[in-house]
Specification:
The chain is mainly α. It has 5 helices and no strands. This is Ribosomal protein-like protein.
Amino acid sequence: MKQPATPNAADETITEQNQTGAKQKSKKFPTPTELISHYQKRGLEPAEASIKVIEDLQNALVRVVSSSRNASSKDKLLTDARKIDAINGRLAVVDAKLETKPGYVETFVLGLASGTVLNGINAVWPHVTRGIGQVWSAVKSGTDPSSTS
């Protein structure tokens, strides 16, 4: 026995596309209340349906915004990437300079050492100047022709 011929699947998809194409031309966007009622019919609570509607609207907005970007936004993205690279390079230079600077403990030790050296110089300076003065007066009195008598 012969079975009846099954309808062609390609014919079904063509007719569905024609029907949806006609609907898309005259189709208006659903209102938020219609979307909420649609999700409530699927078994979601009103709060869950509202959240789902918000998620769908956000996703649609993201798709519209991301699809509206053209080549100029890609150039802007590359420009921003270059700026970020330049800033990163500057930060690397500043970081390298900061790593070579002494820390708090090292600065404190350097201050103590320099203070000790200055106190030592202040303690020795009067003796040095007195010695230089004595040498100067000895040389002066030895070379003075009036004092050779």
